[in-house]
Design goal:
With about 150 residues, the chain is mainly alpha-helical. The chain has one domain (about 25-150): Rhodopsin 7-helix transmembrane proteins (Rhopdopsin 7-helix transmembrane proteins). It has helices spanning about 20-50, 60-85, 95-125, 130-135, 140-145, and strands at about 10-15, 90-95. The longest helix is centred in the C-terminal third of the chain and has 34 residues, at about 95-125. One of its GO terms (biological process) is sensory perception of smell. One of its GO terms (cellular component) is membrane. GO terms for molecular function: G protein-coupled receptor activity. InterPro entries: GPCR_Rhodpsn, GPCR_Rhodpsn_7TM.
Length: about 150
């Protein structure tokens, strides 16, 4: 009779876009540009909607938190991908992969919930315009945004 199987998965081998070393640098620069554009765009959205007093409405409040989630899930995936272009190591540990995947899924789910809350805010502003400031008070907006992160 055979003994028990003692093998365990400790890392995953990542298959890249290309194996050609001549394409690694252009692809790195392309994805770095995309990542930095996303980063700067989301940070700009967060800063501008926070600083400008005219943008202190529920719509921009939700838009700011949507930018936070976009910033989070692009940061969950982007740096590791850029690292794999620079360092020719195509492996990721099991726990790093699980952490990256879990954070990505949680932040995508939060984004979907925030989008639904934004649509609720638009519904209230169209169907109940006189009660909009009562229904969408700052306290209610905070509760609607904090719940997905719990």
């Amino acid at each position: 009779m055979e003994g028990p199987n003692l093998t365990a998965v400790t890392e995953f081998i990542l298959l890249g876009i290309t194996e050609g070393p001549e394409l690694q640098a252009p692809l790195f620069l392309l994805f770095l540009f995309i990542y930095l554009t996303s980063l700067l765009g989301n940070l700009g959205m967060i800063i501008f909607t926070r600083v400008d007093p005219r943008l202190q409405t529920p719509m921009y409040f939700f838009l700011r938190h949507l930018a936070v989630t976009n910033l989070g899930y692009s940061t969950a995936v982007g740096p590791k991908m850029l690292e794999n272009f620079v360092v020719y190591q195509n492996a990721i540990s099991y726990y790093a992969c699980a952490t990256q995947l879990a954070s990505f899924i949680v932040l995508i789910a939060c984004e979907l919930v925030i989008l639904s809350r934004m649509s609720y805010g638009r519904y209230v502003s169209i169907c109940h315009p006189l009660l909009y400031t009562v229904i969408m008070s700052p306290k209610v907006c905070w509760v609607l945004v904090v719940i997905p992160y719990l």
